[in-house]
Amino acid sequence: MPPKTRHVPVVIVGGGQAGLSVSYHLKQRGIEHLVFEKQTAAHTWESQRWDTFCLVTPNWQCDLPGHPYDGPDPDGFMKRDEIVAYLKAFVAKVNPPIREGVAVTRVERRQDGIFSVQTSEGDFTADEVVVASGGYHTPIIPRMAEKLPGSITQIHSNQYRNPDQLPEGEVLVVGSGQSGAQIAEDLHLAGRTVHLAVGDAPRCARFYRGRDVVTWLADMGYYEMTVDNHPLRDGVRDNTNHYVTGRDGGRDIDLRRFAAEGMKLYGLMEDYRDGSLRFRDDLKRSLDQADRTYNGINAAIDKYIAEKGIDAPVQEHYTPVWEPGEPVTSLPLEGSGITSVVWCIGFTPDFRWLDASVFNGAGSPKHKRGVTNEDGIYFIGLPWLNTWGSGRFGAVGRDAEHIVQVIQKRLGAERFALKFAV
Question: Where is the secretion signal located (predicted)?
Fold first, then answer.
C-alpha cells in the first residue's frame, strides 16, 4: 500500500529568515506546521555571498523576531561570517520543524479545498501555504553571453567569491546595482583593471551631516512608510536598490572616483557582435541621475534637520569628481585585456511549482502585505511586501506576524465551522 499522506495545518516553503520568522510566530501560537527547505536553513548567506560581503545597513536594523542584534557594534556592518553566525543563532532559537534537503515540486488546491503539496520526500496536504522562497531564484545571464568566445570566463554575481578565482587579466563587470558596484569595488581594491557597464541604479551617501543616512531616514519615518503610501505605490517594488557599502566601517561608492583611479566606465551593455562589446550612449545620463538621487536624499535630510531645529554639522552636497569624455559604444574584445565577465544584472523569480491564480502578467505575486486573494496562500520576504524592510532583517518579522495572525483567524474559523457542522 502507498504511504499515507501526512496532513499539516501550515506548510512553509523556504527556510531563510522569512520562513523562519513565520515559523517563530506559528510556534508562539502553538500552530502545527512544517518548513521545507531544499538546501539548508538560511544557506543563501553562506553559499551565495563573496568573501568581503557585508551588510549595507547598520547592525541595529537587524531585528528578527525574538532575536534583535545584541552585539558590540550596533552602528557597524556585519561581515558575511558574522551574518551567518547571527542567522544560525536565530535558527537555534526558533528550533523550527524543518525538513532540510527537501524540495517542494508542486502545490495545488484539491477539489475539497485542501492543498496538495508534492515534495522530493513525498506527498503532504495542508490548509495554508506560505511561500517564503524569496524572489531571487534564477540568475539572469543574457543571450549575448552565448556569443562570447569560450576563452572568456563568465560567472554570475552569485558565484563570485574573490578576485583570485578569476583568471589573470582585466574584468568586465556588467551591472551597477548593489552587487555589481560592490564587486567592482572589490576587484578594483585588489588591483584588478575593471571595466564596468553601468546601469540605472541610484546611489546614496553612507554618512551625511554627522550620522549614517539610514539613521536619518529611520528618524524621518521612511522605513515605516508602506507601499500603499509610497509615491510610486506598487511600482516601488521594481526599483533597483541604491548602491553604497558597509565595508571598512562604511563609505560611499562613487563610480566617478573609481574612474578617476583607472576603472573604465561604459553605458548599459547591449550586445556582443562582430567581435566587439556594444554599449549604450547613456553613461553620463546614468551617473548624473545617480547623483541627483544622492543629492536629493541629502536635501530631504537637510529639510528635516531645519524643520526640527537639529544641531548637525553642515555638509556640502556632492560635486562630481570626474566626467566622462567621448562615449565608448563599441569595444573590440580582442586587445581589450578582458579575460572574464561577472554578470551582475539580477535574478528572476520562479514560482512554477505553485499552481494558483495569484500572479500578474509579469509572473509576480499579487498580494496585500503578503496575503493573496486566494484563501490560504501567502508570500513573505519579498522586496516592499509592505515596507522597505520587508525583504530584509528589519521588518520581515513584523510581516510574518501579520500573516500568522491571518492564518490563525482562518484556521480558527475553519475549525469552528467544522465543529458546528458536526
Answer: none
For residue 34, the Cα-to-chain-centroid distance in whole angstroms is 24
Determine which helix (DSSP H) or strand (DSSP E) holds 6, and give its type and residue range: strand 6-13
DSSP state of 157: G
Collapsing DSSP to helix, strand or coil, 80 comes out as helix
* Nearest to 158, CA basis, from 247, 50, 79, 37: 50
* Whether pLDDT at 79 is above 70: yes
Q: Flag whether pLDDT at 230 surpasses 90.
A: no
User: What is the pLDDT of the chain when averaged over all its residues?
Assistant: 93
First to last CA, the chain: 31
Helix (H, G, I), strand (E, B) or coil at 53: coil
Q: Count Cα atoms within 13 angstroms, Cβ side, for 244.
A: 26
Please answer whether residues 365 and 129 qualify as being in contact, where contact means their C-beta atoms are separated by less than 8 angstroms.
no
Given this model, what pLDDT does residue 414 score? 57
SS3 content of the chain, % helix, strand, coil (to 5): 35, 25, 45
- Judged by DSSP in three states, 310 sits in coil
pLDDT of residue 43: 85
DSSP 183: H
Contact 243, 201 (CB under 8 A): yes
More confident residue, 217 or 238: 217
Q: How many residues comprise the chain?
A: 422
Would you place residue 245 in the very low, low, confident or very high pLDDT band (cuts 50, 70, 90)?
very high
40-49, 129-138, 179-188, 378-387: range with lowest mean pLDDT: 40-49
Q: What is the DSSP string of 81-112?
A: HHHHHHHHHHHHHH---EEET--EEEEEE-TT
- List, in order of start, the domains of the chain with CATH numbers: 6-137+349-421 (3.50.50.60), 139-343 (3.50.50.60)
C-alpha cell at 238: 521594481
Contact indicator for 24, 15 with CB cutoff of 8 Å: no
Give dist(CA 163, CA 154) in Å, integer.
13
Beta carbons of 411 and 31 less than 8 angstroms apart: yes
| pLDDT surpassing 60 at residue 280 | yes
With beta carbons less than 8 A apart as the criterion, state whether 239 and 230 touch: no
